[in-house]
Amino acid sequence: MMLPRLLPLVQQIADRFPDINIAVRFAGAARISAINGPLTLTSADAAEAARILGVHHVVDLHTEG
After folding, report:
1. Along the 65 residues of the chain, how does pLDDT read in single tens digits?
2. Interior CA angle at 25 toward 20 and 31, to 5°?
3. Cα-Cα-Cα-Cα dihedral of 46, 64, 28, 59, to 10°?
4. Nearest to residue 52, comparing CAs of 27, 26, 16, 3?
5. C-beta separation of 40 from 30 below 8 A
6. Contacts of 64 (CB under 8 A, 6+ apart)
7. What residues does 25 pair with on adjacent strands?
8. I need a labelling partner for 5 at 20 to 30 A (CA). Which of 11, 35, 40, 57 fits?
């Protein structure tokens, strides 16, 4: 099973809710063997998600390092 790209979904959220001020993101590129691709945002995608949403505050969850 392959997951859809996450950033197009973030763009849909930004389009539907243009006045978002705070983003709570699941990041860290978590993976499991049954799925081909990250379950959560990679660090590059997390940065791009913040840009797409145009938020000033971000809370990242489930990150390592």
Report:
1. 445 577 898 899 999 999 999 999 888 887 888 888 777 888 888 889 999 999 989 998 876 65
2. 150
3. -40
4. 16
5. yes
6. 28
7. 60
8. 57
Tokens 């006045």 sit at which residue?
Answer: 19
Reported pTM: 0.76
Q: Which residues pair with 57 in a beta bridge?
A: 22
